[in-house]
Amino acid sequence: MHQFAYSAAHDLRDPLRNISLATSLIYEKFKAKDYDEIEDLLKRLLHTASYGGSLVKNLLDYSAANREMKMELVCLNDVVTQTITVLNTLIEQAEAKIVLKKLPTVWGNNQQLQIVFQNVISNAIRYRGDLPLIISISTQRKKSLWVISIKDNGPGVPEEFKDEIFQPFKRLSAKASGRSSGLGLSICRRIIEQHGGEIWLDTQSGPGACFKFTLQKG
User: pTM for the whole thing?
Assistant: First the structure.
């Protein structure tokens, strides 16, 4: 817990410092009536504030994933449709295509499962390669469980990092489109474990990244 708190404070300190610096620079520019760089500084300020807000949201999601949650019958098609609506702007900007096969009804928590799909889909967009991005979502029955697969055609994740990526504040790529809090997959793991399932990176599914997790049948 001490290490987690230290890492969270460290990650929050950077955007706050950058916001303070950009605000000071804007103030000095206005005082000197030098308006040439103010637009760029304001853009930097908005971007940093957005990242800080995203980090705070992920910290709250991480905390919420530890609490007991209400379970009920959940239609995964509805969950994914809601997720696509929330991420619509991001998906359109990346010109990504979501291929969605008919998904089952499971025993779970709608809001928490939406967070799982949001994080995995957002990561696929953030770490996409040069090819037009395609994200495929499908399921497979396994005894009393459903195995959910979210696969993309991006550069993928090296096999040696398949466990490390689920640790809090782990960022493996400096080539991401946009900054990451490093909490997304650790939040996913906590939520799926709360559902009595498991989540993993399938490194045998061919090119790209393929995340799989199990949920109880509804």
Answer: 0.72
For the 72-216 domain, the top CATH level (class) is alpha beta
- Per residue in 22-78, pLDDT (tens digit) is 788 888 888 887 777 888 888 878 777 776 776 676 666 666 666 677 899 999 999
The b/e string for 128-140 (b: 16+ C-beta within 10 A; e otherwise) is beeeebbbbbebe
DSSP annotation of 133:
P
Provide the 3-class DSSP secondary structure of residue 30.
helix
Question: Alpha-carbon distance 218 to 215, whole Å?
Answer: 9
* CA distance linking residue 66 with residue 46, whole number of Å: 31
Give me 22's structure tokens. 């950009």
Q: How far apart are CA 166 and CA 189, in angstroms?
A: 7
* Residue extents of the structural domains in the chain: 2-64, 72-216
Residue 152, φ and ψ in degrees, nearest 5? -125, 170
